[in-house]
Every structure is written in C-alpha cells, then in structure tokens.
Amino acid sequence: MDTVTMAESLGGLNGFLLHFLAAVVLVALFSALYVWITPYAEFRLIREGKVAPAISFGGALLGFVIPLAGAISESVSFLDMLVWSVVALVVQVLVFLALRSCCAGLCRGIADDQRAPAILLAVLSVAAGILSAACMTY
C-alpha cells in the first residue's frame, strides 16, 4: 500500500481551485445568458411559485453542467476546458432556440406555468448536454 503525505494530497489544490472557480463563473455566465435569451423572467416567475420555469431552467442548467464537468475532466489544459465549455453553452442556447422555433407557444406556456413544454425543454436540454459530454471525449 502506498502512503501519501498531506503535501502530496494537497498538491493538486491549486488546479482544483482554478477549475472550480472557473466552473462557478461559467455557470453564472451561462445562467445570465440563458435568462437573457428567454423572453420570460425565470427568476421572477420562480419566486412567484411557478414550477414550469424552474423545470425548464433546471434542465438547461443540468444540460450545461454535464458537459462542463466532462470538459473539466477531459480537457488537456485550462484553455481547452474553456473552449469546450463555450461549446456546451452554445449547444444549450441552440437547443432552446430550435425548440422555440419548432413549438409555437413554448415560451408562453412556460411563463403560464404549463409543465408539459417545460418538461420537454428540460429533457431535450439534458439530452443535448449528455450527448455534448460524450462528444467531448478524446
């Protein structure tokens, strides 16, 4: 059994902190961009107790975080991780825009707290995120 010293265990702490802070910033940027492109005010609606905006936003967030985690674990450098994170962000935006153009009334339905369009958007967002993560492997 190999023994590891405390200094060896903490040797990757700087890399962890760099990637974790970058991930937090990227999630915040994704959230800001996502709520900016949607025509309804997710957070206001969620504060009012509406479930549909929470479902759709939660799905989009998971759809971004899944490939972000893959980019962090699979990237060969910090810049590589940033590039693939932006790709994951673009994929999520495209999923929303494509579904919005295909499904008339999607946004109105979510704003009116209809769960069916919110669940559809959330499931497609997560599915796109899983596929994005799978495609990011080298």
Q: How would you sum up this structure, described in words?
A:
This protein is mainly α. The chain is 80% helix and 0% strand. The protein is built from 7 helices and no strands. Helix 4 runs antiparallel to helix 5 (78-102) and helix 5 runs antiparallel to helix 7. It has helices spanning 6-9, 13-37, 42-47, 52-74, 78-102, 106-111, 115-135. The mean pLDDT is 94.
Question: Secondary-structure map with pairings?
Answer:
Layout: H1 6-9, H2 13-37, H3 42-47, H4 52-74, H5 78-102, H6 106-111, H7 115-135
Summarize the structure.
With 138 residues, the protein is mainly alpha-helical.
Overall average pLDDT: 94
SS-based structural class? Answer: mainly alpha
Number of strands: 0
Low-confidence segments, given as residue ranges, are: none
Number of helices, counting only DSSP H or I runs of 4 residues or more: 7
Q: Gap between N and C termini, in Å? A: 31 Å
Order of helices and strands: HHHHHHH
Described by strand count, sense and barrel closure, the largest sheet is: none
Helix proportion range: over 70%
Strand content: under 5%
Shape: elongated
Computed Rg: 18 Å
Task: Note the main attributes of this structure.
mainly alpha, elongated, 0% strand, 138 residues
